[in-house]
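Quick one: structure for this chain?
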Amino acid sequence: MLGRHYAPSQLKLVLDDFDKTETYEVKEIIYYKTYEYDPENILYLVKWKNYPDPKWDKWKPESSYIERQCIKDYWEKHNANKAEVLTTTAPERIINPSDSNKLTASSRGTKRKRAH
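Got it. Here's what it folds into:
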């Protein structure tokens, strides 16, 4: 029994039968996917430590992880990359076809469809 109250984030999951459980160490999570019929069940494509060949990469559900730090790391990296793309990609400039005299020399050579 614990001597004081702990927040759930301070507790570490421990398996009762750890010695009997076959475990592998995650090198990194490469990608994720969900199924339309079950969007809450996220599967992660895992690259295993000491298994460099992509043939060993496997899709595993979140429930199969003992230590979930690799999942947190994946989402931090994924969200950082998404934010970087959003901040570095300039939106396309919308040009009114009637303003064709305002086009720059580089944009005159491109064909544009006229809005009806």
